[in-house]
């Protein structure tokens, strides 16, 4: 559990950066840019709260013991 928490905490900021970038493109490249001053703080908060569970779900996939238990080499996430 401790290792998963450490990996998830490192992943958290990367996942949040990706979600933030997707949200910014979605706001600024569409007609939503008229209300960008209102939507950007909401998008930041949503990306913060969504990235924690996503990082928690991705973390075990980056551990070798996860793949040894399954009997495979890995996938596109773990390499």
Largest pleated sheet: none
Distance between the termini: 22 Å
Give the fraction of residues assigned to helices: over 70%
**Anisotropy-based shape:** elongated
Total individual domains:
1
From N to C, what is the helix and strand string? HHH
Tell how many strands the DSSP assignment holds.
Answer: 0
Count the DSSP helices. Answer: 3
The unreliable regions are: none
Gyration radius, rounded: 16 Å
Mean pLDDT: 87
The SS-based structural class is: mainly alpha
Strand content bin? under 5%
Structure overview:
- There is one protein chain.
- The chain starts with a helix and ends in a 9-residue tail after the last helix.
- It has one domain.
- The chain has 79 residues and is an all-alpha fold.
- The model has no long low-confidence stretch (mean pLDDT 87).
- It has three helices and no strands.
- Helices cover 72% and strands 0% of the residues.
- It has helices at 2-28, 36-58, 64-70.
- Helix 1 (2-28) packs antiparallel against helix 2.
Provide key terms for this protein.
single chain; 79 residues; mainly alpha; elongated
